């Protein structure tokens, strides 16, 4: 759910001291080496002819927790985070800090900065907090997959996955299938724009991308089109996609709300209530 024009990278700093990476991360993945000179966050007073000094972690602009909470739930930005990020970029520049409970996040709103960070990740990348997903799998006695596990176990699963899906030669085999789905997606996009009141707007882009993703995945796995991008979509498919959207929406609230709200079903952040509406699936890895 990140806007391309305002990409956000959230680093959960677990036990981090000075610098932006947890203990054990490669030393080169630090702010001074990650920022190009023309994109750097300069310290106050730096001007022409003066060598730029990179800001320390304490000098990076940051949001207060109460203000952030107010903007999310009172001003209604909880489900419009991309709009809030645009406002923050205009106010703070390409980098700022925010807090979600005990988690400190460094937000990047610059493609070059994001590229530098991604290129300098170590063998085991720093993952976002996956506490909700882990709790869900623990509750149902499910093992962790590449989406939820970390460290060496993640690396082993990723290596196994690479052999079948992520090698360039293997991925090239799916090119025709992807292109076919993409063509239908663009046709459907034009149809929805033409049918809108303004003639150039899609009212629910997220749901359209859910349909696109489901169609592409099913075509690759089952070698069969299921009609997600047609004008008339099967009712079961509509229910499934709506459930996915509701699950992501509820997980967002559950992430922002404190743990003491979780016993309350009305808060949609109980032990597993953020998964409300999701259909049952066979046990698998995620």
From TrEMBL:
<dbReference type="GO" id="GO:0016705">
    <property type="term" value="F:oxidoreductase activity, acting on paired donors, with incorporation or reduction of molecular oxygen"/>
</dbReference>
<keyword id="KW-0408">Iron</keyword>
<dbReference type="GO" id="GO:0005743">
    <property type="term" value="C:mitochondrial inner membrane"/>
</dbReference>
<keyword id="KW-0809">Transit peptide</keyword>
<dbReference type="GO" id="GO:0005506">
    <property type="term" value="F:iron ion binding"/>
</dbReference>
<dbReference type="GO" id="GO:0034650">
    <property type="term" value="P:cortisol metabolic process"/>
</dbReference>
<keyword id="KW-0479">Metal-binding</keyword>
<dbReference type="Pfam" id="PF00067">
    <property type="entry name" value="p450"/>
</dbReference>
<keyword id="KW-0349">Heme</keyword>
<dbReference type="GO" id="GO:0006700">
    <property type="term" value="P:C21-steroid hormone biosynthetic process"/>
</dbReference>
<keyword id="KW-0503">Monooxygenase</keyword>
<dbReference type="GO" id="GO:0008203">
    <property type="term" value="P:cholesterol metabolic process"/>
</dbReference>
<dbReference type="GO" id="GO:0004497">
    <property type="term" value="F:monooxygenase activity"/>
</dbReference>
<dbReference type="InterPro" id="IPR036396">
    <property type="entry name" value="Cyt_P450_sf"/>
</dbReference>
<dbReference type="InterPro" id="IPR050479">
    <property type="entry name" value="CYP11_CYP27_families"/>
</dbReference>
<dbReference type="InterPro" id="IPR001128">
    <property type="entry name" value="Cyt_P450"/>
</dbReference>
<dbReference type="GO" id="GO:0006704">
    <property type="term" value="P:glucocorticoid biosynthetic process"/>
</dbReference>
<comment type="similarity">
    <text>Belongs to the cytochrome P450 family.</text>
</comment>
<keyword id="KW-0560">Oxidoreductase</keyword>
<protein>
    <submittedName>
        <fullName>Cytochrome P450, family 27, subfamily A, polypeptide 1</fullName>
    </submittedName>
</protein>
<dbReference type="GO" id="GO:0020037">
    <property type="term" value="F:heme binding"/>
</dbReference>
<dbReference type="GO" id="GO:0071375">
    <property type="term" value="P:cellular response to peptide hormone stimulus"/>
</dbReference>
